[in-house]
């Protein structure tokens, strides 16, 4: 019985279909669970999907290496998906024109600081170069951040973990900050959510209002482009 | 067919981005360069075709599916970064708190002064 299962596993993991099937199933289940539990801020769908997958991959004995090799057939699509982000960015262009002054002043400084604060703290705490280059793109939307981490020689897995934590924290901290600084402009709230919390922050912004959502997409897109273009040049390792 | 045509455009821009990365020796990923090129092309054309808009929406809506396999890796590198996790967590919490407050404060100040300028003009 055990032998037959081992043999079946060898056959199944010879091609990528098992990984693809598992990933699709986890994605659909995570989407369903997320809606079922009233869209909790601290538990985005990507975290649910990853937890489900990690459990199956570890318990079934497939192993992460084997799983990842098959899942690569899906993850190669991140390339064109990153290109696709240019379309909503273009569609937000009229927002950029209307508010270009605050955006132009805030974006380069805030996007740089989003990376520098965390890097500075990690550096002071003696983090290894691998950890530093993995954390550098922490505020950037995932497909772009994965590219940046690869370019800097970081660990993509650690980057994605950092991204996830950052997105969840940013949603919570913006909530606090807005109350503390008495900000009522949805455009500012949205922009701050997207700039710091990428896609997870943007999902939160859409719950506040459509305006906040639009500005969050904008902040996310611009931070992504800015960080991806400048971080690899500025990073001193 | 409509989706495929839009997807072909995205793949072509990705390949162009990769070409630019290699030929100009840029440390930026091909996808990002492709995204910048798409944005500029659309700005020059002044409109986005339905095919491209459809294909983009489709891909963006399954981003979680494409990213999830990478996130799974986090649970398998716990040992690899043994002793570094406190650093990682502290840097993320304090760094994110500081950068959120900075962004909000900056945006508030700048948009207030922009509104002030408007009143004086």
TrEMBL record, chain A:
Superkingdom of origin organism: Bacteria
Compartments in which it is found: Membrane
UniProt entry keywords in alphabetical sequence: Membrane, Transmembrane, Transmembrane helix
Primary localization class, coarse: membrane
Transmembrane residue ranges: 12-34, 46-64, 70-90, 102-125, 156-176, 212-235
One term under GO cellular component: membrane
Membrane topology: Multi-pass membrane protein
Entry keyword Flavoprotein: no
Entries under PANTHER family matching the protein: PLASTIDAL GLYCOLATE_GLYCERATE TRANSLOCATOR 1, CHLOROPLASTIC, PUTATIVE SEROTONIN TRANSPORTER
Protein name: LrgB family protein
Automatic annotation (TrEMBL), chain B:
Keyword field contains Membrane: yes
Membrane topology: Multi-pass membrane protein
UniProt keyword list: Cell membrane, Membrane, Transmembrane, Transmembrane helix
A Pfam family it matches: LrgA
Subcellular location: Cell membrane
Main location: membrane
PANTHER family: HOLIN-LIKE PROTEIN CIDA (PTHR33931:SF2), HOLIN-LIKE PROTEIN CIDA-RELATED (PTHR33931)
Protein name: CidA/LrgA family protein
Origin species: Marinobacter fuscus
Lineage: Bacteria, Pseudomonadati, Pseudomonadota, Gammaproteobacteria, Pseudomonadales
